[in-house]
Design a protein that fits this description.
alpha+beta, five-stranded mixed β-sheet
Amino acid sequence: MDADNGLSNSSQQMLAGIAHELKTPLTLISGLSSELQSQRLNPEQFLQYVQRIQFSSDRLLGLVDTILRGYELEQDMLDLRLEPINPLVVMEEVAQELLPHARKQAQLVAITSKHKQTLLADKGCLHAVLFNLLDNAIKYSQPETTIELEARLRRGQAQLVVKDYGHGIKRTDLKKLFSQFGRVQRPVPQWASTTGLGLYVAKQLTEAMSGSLELTRRRDGTSFLINLPLSTQLNLFEV
């Protein structure tokens, strides 16, 4: 603990990172709300403003959820409820939540499944992991590309794949990618600036569910691989 201000350097960095993450969507929401009150807008303009406010609000909620789960992990307060889950249901939920973000860059999100098998996970944690990875893929993918979500079997485990089509990640950046605040240098729109906290939390949540989070580099982008245990109790695809 730093005797001068009561905060360690790590805590200061975390607070600065959180403030940076929250400032952009909050500033946009505040500005748009003021304009809605002060201007006379036609119905089309009004709808555009409301959609932009909704877009920023959704991103803000996702950031807050990431921060809270990161805190629960750090304080050993995370209460996991592992249960059989149909991964397609969670993938579709996350895709719908982030669809406005993808549309902003004229992107599509495609969901496929080669094997109909349930996995064992905490639904809230799995949702948070997929949300962070898909949000990350949207940020770093080129406009007018299709981001792919896939559920498949690999070596006796369920594997969920989030595949983006961007500039890729340098080999020298791989080690720090999943570290706390481990930002890497990749071209990203200004509205989507990030401290890298999301990937760190995603990895920690996956490992808390007895899984692993990996990535593979491609010439046309990056694939994130979520490996989780299969469920033998119930096949939710048959329900």
